[in-house]
Amino acid sequence: MDTATRTVAVVLAGGVGARLGAGRPKQLLEVGGRPILAHAVAAFDGHPDVAEVLVVMAAGHVREAAALTAPFRKVTGVIEGGATRTASTAAALAALADRPDGTRVLFHDAARPFVDRAVIDRTLAALEDHDAVAVGVPASDTIVAVRDGLVADMPPRSTLVRFQTPQGFRLGTVRKAYELALADPDLVATDDCGVVHRYLPDVPIRVVEGSEHNLKVTHPLDVALAEHIAEQIAANPPENT
User: Fold this and answer.
1) Other C-beta atoms within 10 Å of 148: how many?
2) d(CA 40, CA 112)
3) Distance CA 224, CA 92 (A)
4) Quick one: pLDDT at residue 219?
5) Count of CA atoms in the C-beta half-sphere (13 A) of 213
6) What distance in Å separates the CA atoms of residue 160 and residue 205, rounded to the nearest whole number?
7) Cα 175 to the chain's mean position, in Å?
8) For helices 117-126 and 36-45, what crossing angle results, to 10°?
9) How far apart are CA 129 and CA 127, in angstroms?
10) Model's pTM, two decimal places?
11) Band of pLDDT at residue 3, cut at 50, 70 and 90
């Protein structure tokens, strides 16, 4: 693979996991006998089409994350993230400033330990024809918009998906979106596709199928669910890993 189509996976571990109440970054907690961060990094380190992995870690924990990820051969750096998801992505983009615009970059939440190869495959395949790709699963609940405690809108459930990660981009596209976003004093964003959608509205964002196993560990109950998934995977390991 030439440098123009090189794939870099960015594992975003900048959060501190306040909602989990564990007293330390949730990505350092163990599930299935392994830190959540290690699970996430391993998924990309073991993927044949990922050339390198960059870890963006919460302030004060960079050294610990570097030691944890040292055994992974594709990890080329562990850098300090920002106070928000947007700031952590911006830090990663700064670290990739010398890479060509055609580079494929995958942004993944470190708190999603069980992303599988099939999801990564679908994301990379979609990047062949699109500059921005999201991963999603169909909404199983009825989702409503609420204003002042009253139902304001009820979009058809068939049109709704729940976003997961990775989210994939051509580097030049997400780089341009963030240049515009960071110049906006009213910037509010929770994910990278949201930034592209808002600041580069003419760029189509392709949505590919995610996985129910690809959960995000956010609340205490999620830890128990993650342990259960880890047990399932250990008992029935994927054939392609």
Assistant:
1) 5
2) 6
3) 31
4) 87
5) 18
6) 14
7) 16
8) 50
9) 5
10) 0.93
11) very low
The first and second tokens of residue 18, run together, are: 């306040």
The alpha carbon dihedral of 218, 221, 223, 225 has a sign of negative
Query: Is 110 in contact with 25 (CB distance < 8 Å)?
Result: no
Tokens 């399932």, located at residue = 232
- Among the listed residues 1, 116, 110, 102, the one whose alpha carbon sits nearest the alpha carbon of residue 50: 1
Render pLDDT for 95-105 as a digit per residue (tens, 0 to 9): 999 999 999 99
Distance CA 214, CA 109 (A): 10
Angle subtended at Cα 162 by Cα 94 and Cα 81, rounded to the nearest 5 degrees? 25
Q: What is the pLDDT of residues 173-201, one digit of tens each?
A: 999 999 999 999 999 888 999 999 999 99
Q: What is the pLDDT of residues 194-224, one digit of tens each?
A: 999 999 999 999 999 999 999 999 888 999 9
| Residues across the chain | 241
C-alpha 104: how far from chain center: 14
Residue 21, sorted as left (phi over 0), alpha (psi -120 to 50) or beta, turns out to be left
